Structure prediction request, 80 residues.
Amino acid sequence: MEKTIKVGSSFESKVVAELVQKASQFNSHLALVMEEKTANAKSIMGIISINLQTGNTVTIVANGDDEHQAIVELEHIISA
Prediction:
């Protein structure tokens, strides 16, 4: 399951930590894809490495039994 969204205006380091914490609560494999870069959504270093910025477009990719709920929750954090 995939969903492409726009990064919200409040995307900063504390949001990265919140995103990783939330992603870690799900059993599904979760990744963020921006352009040609892919990061594990459960890894702070991974997310930092793709350099998400306010206004960027990112795709959340989820695969697992709770993928739908994971996408909903991560979308809420990223787009805020």
About this structure: The chain has one domain: 2-79. Residues 67-79 form the longest helix (13 residues).
